Amino acid sequence: MAHPSSIRPVLEKISRNLTPNFYITNDDEEIIDALVDNGKMMQDFSVSQVTSFLADQDFCLAFYFADEVDRGFSMYIIRDFSVNIREMIQLEYVLDQIMDHGYNYHLFHAARSKVDEMLYMAPTFRAMWEKKDKTEEE
Q: Which of 36, 43, 82, 116 could pair covalently with 125 via S-S, beta carbons 3.0-4.6 A apart?
């Protein structure tokens, strides 16, 4: 029998909307399917890493954690990201909070940079997809 300290804790699967347009999941099967479908599946599972991609008009930020205690995937999705800027800013805030708590600064800083890049590009995507800026309508 394995020593109790060597048993990996079973993490509860979480898949929920934080807002109507901000979704989070740690369901490995769901995340792997999305990564494979979008040609972003990680190849090296010895290191923690982050990738981002667009699935239709949704911004997806996927993590793989290689830490023995926290091994597995996590993904944040901002639906229709080019018009849901507030949710993108909320995602930045979440990443900032994680960094402030000292968890894998380099990984989460890289993730925050990916969000920043997409925020910068949001007006271009809105124009390309012929969408209106929600903040201008309010």
A: 82
β-strands 49-55, 58-65 pairing: antiparallel
Nearest to 61 by CA among 89, 37, 31: 31
Cα–Cα distance measured from residue 99 to residue 110, given in angstroms and rounded to the nearest whole number: 11
Minimal CA–CA distance to 37: which of 88, 75, 87, 67? 75
Rounded CA separation 20/80 (Å)? 11
Domain boundaries, the chain: 4-130
Residue 106 to residue 11: CA distance in whole angstroms = 24
pLDDT at res. 25? 96
Q: How far apart are CA 40 and CA 52, in angstroms?
A: 8
Mean pLDDT by 10 residues, the chain (138 residues): 44 86 96 97 95 97 90 96 97 96 93 97 95 71
